[in-house]
Design a protein that fits this description.
Blueprint (H helix, E strand, L loop, with lengths): L1 E5 L19 E6 L2 H5 L3 E2 H20 L3 E5 L1 H4 L5 H11 L2 E7 L4 H12 L5 E4 L11 H4 L8 H12 L3 E2 L2 E2 L16 H6 L8 E2 L1 H9 L4 E2 L5 E2 L5 H15 L26 H5 L5 H14 L6 H25 L27 H13 L4 H15 L3 H11 L5 H12 L16 H7 L20 H12 L1 H4 L6 H9 L2 H16 L5
The chain binds flavin-adenine dinucleotide and iron/sulfur cluster.
Length: 514
């Protein structure tokens, strides 16, 4: 009998043990699915990137001799759900065994397990063979409803994997070199920001298909897609990162600038799509970066390589653990009771707040923003205005090319909105305009005045920040990391505090006009 093996759009892992041998009785299914275009409204470049990468992967498997059933929306449009399609194919191709790799999204895992339970043919669930921490080990690392901290997890992983270790000690004697990083950009630094490598993938046929099937998307369409869609392109991006960007990666990790055409990419790797689609493995990326550092430690300093490894070995594996320990409940957490809608400029970029205009505009243009733009500008704004975390999640899950729920949800609802009440972070990432002004040059060209908390053209972030702290006083005043901030606030004159809170109220009431 024949075996049907399902490959989802984020399972493009050519090194999976499925592909070590060519099996004549095995049919691989790669399909554009109506349900995947519709579970959230996506950025058009995100859909194009996944569909183009799936096509490339199907072709690569075929060239290696595998039998592949590659279906586009033209063939799958009549199957509203994945089970509908699978049932039809299992019958049509006289399938005797159905196999899938365990999905990383709770939604899909539930759907496939439920489908399998009612299927008349046997089913086998495989591991996706991608992550550094095996799925079975997650429960011993992460407990539900329990606060975990990335740093402790990261150190355990360093010890266990031996990555950047010198026997039992971290290389260089320190676990974390962040204090050496996080510089701001001076004028001469801005001139040196390298132009990013992008690719020239023709996705016009995919765009036509999306239109033909009335797929509702947003963001700027690009007929030539810059994101890597094949192994070859992903490897080229990784090579370029190791050569040109890694030497300054950590140093400018938190910086933002509007003064350079390459300000959107800076020294970030932009490997998240290739990693999350599993075109590259985390081990491969870490090993290659460490190799580059070892080959030239004078050019790439220890703080740079450690900072990069921590993102992938630490943060990426960590948020996945938080996700699986707490799903499905995590998606409903709203510890701050936030319920405001998102203003329209999240879909147009049309706001007078220069920082938001840049970060939103860039997200809509290229389906990408780097971490600090996501966290300290857009996410911070959502937090301060009390935006409903369901709406915030939907926006983030839709807009970014790398957005898959297992990584988006803990970052958005947890880290940036404090919706999980501190399971992931020890305090909310709330900041006034002063932080944005320190880390960027956005404020220089802004309609608003960064040095004002109240009055005409006062920077909205300034008053909104204090109003946020005031609103959640009971919750945060006992947090040792925030007590100082409250005592500073309490020392101000009552009239000044009132004026700041009134200013914030006015801004919230006129949020669409900001
Ligand atoms: P680099 O700065 O070059 O970092 C290298 C790699 O480290 C990334 O490719 C990524 O795989 C990993 N990494 C770094 N930070 C994190 C993190 N906090 N969590 C998980 N992995 C991390 N990342 C996603 O992959 N998908 C998302 O949907 C996503 N949503 C986010 C939402 C918010 C509100 C925030 C604050 C962060 C989010 N992140 C998400 C994490 C991070 O911002 C992106 O991984 C990063 O910006 C991707 O760009 P890069 O590849 O250039 O990253
Ligand atoms: Fe953003 Fe305020 Fe600076 Fe304007 S002044 S760019 S709104 S932080």
């Amino acid at each position: 009998g024949r075996t049907l093996r399902l490959i989802l759009g984020d399972q493009l892992n050519a090194s999976h043990s499925w592909f070590t041998n060519v099996q004549d009785n095995c049919l691989y299914l790669i399909a554009e699915l109506p349900q995947e275009t519709g579970y959230v409204r996506h950025h058009v470049q995100k859909v194009c990137a996944f569909f183009a990468a799936m096509e490339q992967f199907a072709r690569a498997l075929q060239q290696a001799g595998h039998q592949v059933l590659y279906l586009t929306l033209d063939e799958t449009a009549d199957y509203p759900t994945l089970p509908d399609l699978l049932s039809a194919l299992i019958e049509k191709h006289a399938i005797h065994l159905f196999e899938f790799q365990r999905p990383d999204e709770y939604r899909l895992l539930e759907q496939l397990r439920d489908f399998s339970a009612h299927l008349s043919v046997p089913v086998r669930e495989w591991d996706s063979e991608h992550f550094l921490v095996p799925f079975e080990e997650l429960p011993s690392e992460f407990k539900p409803d329990t606060a975990h901290r990335m740093e402790a997890f990261y150190r355990r992983l360093r010890k266990r994997s031996g990555i950047l270790m010198d026997g039992k000690q971290p290389i260089g004697g320190q676990w974390n070199y962040d204090e050496n990083n996080r510089n701001t950009l001076r004028d001469e630094d801005i001139e040196q920001i390298p132009s990013p490598v992008t690719f020239d993938n023709d996705v016009s046929a995919i765009l036509d298909r999306l239109q033909r099937h009335k797929v509702d998307t947003f963001g700027t369409p690009a007929t030539r897609l810059g994101w890597p869609t094949s192994r070859k392109q992903a490897r080229a991006l990784l090579e370029d990162f190791c050569h040109r960007l890694l030497p300054r990666f950590g140093q400018f990790q938190d910086a933002m600038t509007a003064q350079s055409p390459h300000g959107w990419s800076l020294y970030h790797s932009r490997l998240s799509f290739a990693l999350n689609a599993k075109i590259l493995s985390p081990r491969q990326v870490i090993d290659r970066a460490i190799q580059a550092w070892e080959a030239d430690p004078t050019r790439i300093s220890l703080p740079q390589i450690e900072g990069f490894v921590r993102q992938i070995l630490g943060w990426r594996e960590f948020v996945r653990g938080i996700y699986w320990a707490n799903m499905p409940n995590y998606a409903c957490l709203n510890s701050l009771g936030a319920d405001a809608p998102l203003p329209r400029y999240f879909w147009s970029g049309d706001t007078r707040m220069n920082c938001m205009k840049h970060c939103l505009g860039q997200s809509l243009d290229v389906a990408y923003a780097h971490h600090i733009q996501r966290l300290m500008v857009i996410g911070n704004f959502c937090l301060l205005v009390g935006a409903n975390p369901d709406k915030v999640d939907q926006w983030y899950l839709g807009v970014y090319v790398d957005a898959l729920e297992w990584v988006e949800l803990p970052n958005t609802r947890g880290m940036s909105q404090f919706g999980d009440g501190g399971l992931l972070a020890s305090k909310p990432y709330a900041a006034s305009g002063q932080y944005i002004n320190r880390m960027s040059d956005y404020c220089t060209d802004c309609h608003y005045r960064i040095d004002r908390r109240t009055g005409e053209r006062a920077c909205p972030f300034n008053s909104l920040y204090w109003a946020f702290l005031d609103r959640h006083r009971e919750r945060f005043i006992h947090n040792p990391r925030m007590r100082m901030i409250y005592s500073g606030w309490d020392k101000r004159a009552a009239s000044e505090r009132d004026a700041i809170l009134e200013q914030a109220d006015r801004y919230i009431a006129n949020i669409e006009q900001l």
